[in-house]
Amino acid sequence: MKGKKILLLMSMALALMSANAQEPLKLSLADAKNYALSYNRTLKASDLSVQKADAAKWQAIATMLPHVDAKLGYTNLLGYKAKLNLGSRGGDSELPPSVLSDTSAMKAIGVVSQMMGGGGATEIEMNPYGDLTVQATMAFSGMQFVGVQLSKLAAEMTKLNANISELDTKANVTTAYFTVLVAEESKRLLESSKENLTRLHETTAKMYEVGMAEQTAVDQLDVQVGLVENSVKSAERNIELAYNALRLVLGSNETKIELTETLDGVLANNDVYSTATSEFDINQNYNVQLLNQNIELSKKQLNLKQWEYGPTLALFYQYTTKTYFGKSEGFNMTPPNTIGATLNIPIFSSGERLSKVKQAKFDVKSAELQREDVVEGIKVQEKQLRFLLKSAIETYELQKKNVSVSERIFKNTVQKYELGTVSSTELTTINNNLVSAQGSYIGALMDLLTAQVNLQKLLNQL
């Protein structure tokens, strides 16, 4: 009995989990945009680029801050004893290479030799020891300051590129969302035509049975119904393709997506006339802002080349301590504290630095010319997109009227056909005209929405 209860509970739990798993993802247009901003893989890559640019900025800043390094060492000369003959300069002097290469140590030995005034060879124990060295360094140059500014500009440009990617994603999501709605509207219109033709086909078949219609009329309508059925199936495939495109730009793996907005609602809330007449501030365009930053980047590159004429100052402090593992300290000439400074002053490079400066100046001029060229192109593009939107509005309104007129003509023709005053051929022609008008209307509607999205993208209004 308990086993049956457990199985029943498990079945209910699985059924509940299955129901939750099949719950569709419901999205308005705004929800779809926000979803894409969170899950779109292109935007994720852009966000990583922004984080990388921020890390590079701090890397550049760190070059002007202190660097501290520590080193641990162990030396064992395996019982070797240094022999020092203080009697003469030319006597035996058996010292390890580390002492012979140490200038300060050799000077100290010379002083000791003079103080001792000669004598026999002296043995110095070279006991094993461990040493710890800690060194702090800092370097200053104009190139470092310019490098920090360059890294900040690069980070800002990366963020602008991320904004461009975000705007592209919003435009793609909006277009994909509209495409789904338009595809569903196309299917609705085709299904309406199919219902009308199916009803006429059934009526005609009955009329044929009582001798009031010809077989050719039944056959013609049968063919028309089949053609519309194929169009409906094609529309269903188009809807699935549109949903797949929407999933792709959303970055979603959801198998079921439900759009909460309708085409009529979108058209009612979508003021295309306002978009067509809205003002355009070209400085708000991300591409123009990116070009402005590119000019600043070229100028900083010029400053970087000019600072190659400047000096570089390096400072360091070093602390060293030794621990001997023998009975005595032995020979130790290593100072515990050392400080130093180096000033590097460029003097002559045979025109190499001058050539780099000239090239950087040319890059600045090229960046300025590129900005002027792109700005003019964007202005032309803005005029062209406004023209296309206004033309799309006019075409859409005309096709909308055309569909309305074609529907009235079709209804009147059906009434006449049922009264026997119109032939099946004329009815078929009128129906084809209606389907063609509906197709033109759907095309004009998609052109209208696409033209608006393109202009909104340029105006940065998405």
Task: Describe the model.
α11 runs antiparallel to α12. The chain has 462 residues and is of the alpha+beta class. A hairpin with a 7-residue loop joins β3 and β4. The protein has 2 domains: 24-66 and 143-306 and 351-459, Outer membrane efflux proteins (OEP) (Up-down Bundle), CATH 1.20.1600; 73-131 and 311-344, no CATH class. The protein has 12 helices and 9 strands. The relative contact order is 0.12. It is elongated and about 145 Å long. It is 68% helix and 13% strand.
Radius of gyration: 42 Å
Helical/strand content category: alpha+beta
Task: Give a quick account of the main beta sheet: strands, pairing sense, barrel closure.
Answer: 4 strands, antiparallel
CATH architectural group of the largest domain:
Up-down Bundle
What ranges have pLDDT less than 50 throughout 5 or more consecutive residues? Answer: 13-20, 88-92
Listing every helix as H and every strand as E from the N terminus to the C terminus, the arrangement reads HEHHEEEHHEEHHEHHHEEHH
Spatial order of the strands forming the largest sheet: 2-6-8-9
CATH C-level category of the largest domain: Mainly Alpha
Distance between the termini: 62 Å
What would you give as the CATH superfamily of the largest domain? Outer membrane efflux proteins (OEP)
